[in-house]
Amino acid sequence: MALHVSTGLRDLTRVEPKNNLVRTAVQAFAAAVGGCDSLSVTPFDAPLGLPSALAERLARNQQLLLLEEASVGRVADPAGGSGAIEALTEQIARRSWERVQEIEAAGGLWALLRDGSIQERLAADAARRAAEARVVGVTLFREAAEASLPRDLAGTGGAGPEPARPSVGAGEAGDFSALVTAARHGASTADLLRTLEGAGPEVRVRPLTIARTAAAFEEGST
């Protein structure tokens, strides 16, 4: 099984965003030590909006530093033999399996998503983490006069209008070959899903949200 890891937004901050370089480096190192096969590092200014070209370059270089200078990828099992990591892994696996059993006993994941139980539990966990947050530059050691990060949108990676994607024609929802052709020509997942609307009973669930731990403390910050 190939394991791909993307560093997350949860621990990143809008306030003093350059601190995020350290946070994503730690996340990337943990992923590499954990044995991932491929890795995507979140640009440090992602909480501010579309990442800049500089942030994207630094995110790439973080991976290259771990690979070429720290030689993390040249060790078969960097964490092998660590009692602390082995114990933590076992604890996570045990608790995860207990949670899976709880979900199945309550009717399954789909049922809990429809009634909002999963969303409510995740929101409660996010609120608990925020209440206990110790975030350098936000809740700890915050600068009295914060310097804003320049946002040069002209140098922002990926800026500009996206090229038009081919759409799947009306009445082709049941034609799998049409979906494959559209996907090969750049149709997005959303485009493909839209063609399936009306194919069966519509069920809506409240979407899951990404909650950054520091967000509650950043109101009024830029």
Notes on the structure:
With 222 residues, the protein is mainly alpha-helical. The chain has a domain at 165-195. The chain is 41% helix and 3% strand. The protein has helices spanning 20-33, 53-69, 83-105, 109-115, 117-131, 176-184, 189-195, and strands at 4-6, 38-40. The protein has a two-stranded parallel ribbon. Helix 1 (20-33) links the parallel strand 1 and strand 2 (38-40). Helix 1 runs parallel beside helix 2 (53-69). It is globular and about 55 Å long. The relative contact order is 0.15.
Fold blueprint:
Blueprint: E1 4-6, H1 20-33, E2 38-40, H2 53-69, H3 83-105, H4 109-115, H5 117-131, H6 176-184, H7 189-195
Parallel strand pairs: 1-2
Care to give the gist of this entry?
With 222 residues, the chain is mainly α.
Key attributes of the depicted protein:
222 residues; mainly alpha; 7 helices
